Fold these 3 entries.
Entry 1:
Amino acid sequence: MFDIYTIIFLALAVFIFLRLRNVLGQRTGTERPPFDRHARNIPGVPDANVVPIPGKVIDQAPLAPTAEVTTPTDRWKDLAQPGTSLAQGLDAIASVDSSFDPKHFLSGGRSAYEMIVLAFANGDRRALRDLLSSEVYDSFDAVIKDREKHEQKTETRFVSIDKAELVGADMRDRMAQLTVRFVSQMISVTRDKAGTIVDGNPDKVADITDVWTFARDTTSRDPNWKLVGTGSAH
């Protein structure tokens, strides 16, 4: 025969069981769906959980063409003519680098060009090391060492950067390369220890055309480009 305490405990046990079933057996609407890092995007359906990483696309299927997709004929408007090697190179880079924006690159390229020229003139190795490939840095450093050996100093001042245009684009394995023609005006002079001019003219504005190549590893999280080649044009 059950006493009053046994009946109370049984009633409590049934009550607790029913409450647990109600809570654990229902969804509240705030749960996140399970994340499958190997799942591919569904064409036409944006994935709000995907965060783009500059310079890298991980296991992403190409989206099906839609009316909003930029057509090949105007994709690189004002930068490259359709069907040219430059346009094809830009296409190749964009296909592996979802963050690639050539107009943004050119804007940064102007700043990098000025920074590199001035750092070279001032012998600022620290600034150059962050902006140049090891091979280009070594060649710049050799000239700086020669100036230091002869106790010479170079003074350079930009008057203007008149043009920065893409003239080449290429994918080489995982490395994206962009070649830019810079047209600028600057004043440059090199003096010896006594202040005597050994090169340049402090009163003359020179027209300069440089053709520089920048590169970036598209598999790297680092979005920065480095100077890997220099040349000049007349």
Entry 2:
Amino acid sequence: MGMQIGIVGKPNVGKSTFFNAATDAHAEIANYPFTTIDANRGVMYVRKPCPCKEFKVTCTPHNSKCINGTRFVPIEAIDVAGLVPDACKGRGLGNKFLDDLRQAHSLIHIVDISGSTDEEGNPCGKGSNDPVNDVEFLEREITHWLNGIIKKSWETIARKCELEDKKIDSMLSEKLTGLGISEEHIHNAIRELDLDSHKPSNWTEDDILNLSNYVRKISKPMLIALNKCDAASDELMAKADEIKKKDYIAVPSSAESELALTNASKKGLIEYEPGSNVFKILKEDKLSDKQKTALDYIKSHVLKKFGSTGIQKCIEESVRMLDLIVVYPVEDDTHLTDKENRVLPDAYFMPRGSTAKDLAYKVHTDLGDHFIRAIDARTHRVIGSDHELKDGDVIRIVADS
């Protein structure tokens, strides 16, 4: 399975609008809680320099797209059911939310920075809700969910660990398998919290809760999208500083504006590239007065004020948090083609530290199983299976047929 970014938050804060703006999918959008019941999946794109310019070739992308030398590399997004208080106890769509969340490698938490949705996700007067509470509420729900999983049969695990001299971090990682939580995450948490790994039966309830909280932070890094930024007062926008003090990246965003711009762009009414701070009107005579007013509003209240709609920045910062590199596999390192003669066809995200053999497995299991060597298309040098890949590498895999 590839990398997934979970789009999370309370009902009615603009999650589905954000998801639609960030992907080509069309989740249902409506102004009441629980519109999103099934997790919607889609593909978001991250901008990276395409090697086509450097190699002076015209690329023919297959799994991604290239616009003027910028490659838009795909990463999966999952738009999850809205979360309400006590979801960790199964309230609302809590169990569904947490189940959908399992595979997410990082989270984009959509917060209504205009303060116009209450803790249940119902519309309320603008500025009535403190967005900082929403950030803390989501942290709490995920932490308590993990805590509940760890505490189930905790005494048995702790006893077994001590009697059979087993490592508590490996036993816990087995229990949390399928949640995207590794043994390394647990090992780091135990070390950071200075817990006695040889005597887990001595751990207090607070120790286990603190462990759950630390594991949440490192296994599901979270970015805060300050949505509806155009409708927020300066006082509420200042809350961004409070959120950043909690060690979060916080990005002002307007999902509605991005959706309006991408829709107008698809219809050929404007020229707009995701992440840009400008757009160009192509067919003014085809725009209604309402559309012109909306575009003027976006230009002055979003693009000029915040530098972009923030959606593309949220996507790219959430990928940066995961420390991923992009690699371009090819079958011919001279012409940079695959067997169908497509030039630089695919771009894959890989965790930093991935090897040539890891890439072979990413492309196809058989390639990994029958790996012989790889070739760096820039230098045409042979590289071994454990060679660590760099961001932007173009690599040919050679395998037994």
Entry 3:
Amino acid sequence: MVQATPTDAENGLLERAQAGDDAAFEALVEATRDRVYGIALRITQETFLSAYQHLRELRGAIFSAWIQRIAANQSLMRVRHRKVAQNAESELTGPTFNERGSLDPYPASDWSRRADEKALDAELAKAIERAAEALPEAYRQVFLLRDVEGLSYEEITEITGDSLGALRSRLHRARLAMRQAIDSFYNRV
């Protein structure tokens, strides 16, 4: 992922907008709205595609609430994917050099053990992701919002419009399903 660095003009507009200059903020909006709109459009398309693909699964729910939950999940998954990608990129390190310009020696650790652990961690991560994807939509949503994104129950009730009791019940069931998936993974390994 390539992150753009702000230009001097953008920095100047930002400083003016932060100082209360509405025209500067409007210029920032004008400069970035197409990119923001593009992201929102992709999330919207993914939302309606997912709704179409899972339309037969909708039972006893209001379509408008259901589609809003799908949109929230799509947005959260995009944020989560970005965090994972950024973390993966930050872990990449190049060679290090000493003060004379020579390569530093390799660390004196057992790399084979660490490689095995990383492979196991990657397999576990995939098993957890598959288990999360297999959760019913309402369970997956509350699980992602609470346990992945760290939102409070109050924030989740505002997003979903569901009662606190319903959210706690769904989260409990989602956690049980996730625990079972993790137990199954370790029993298999």
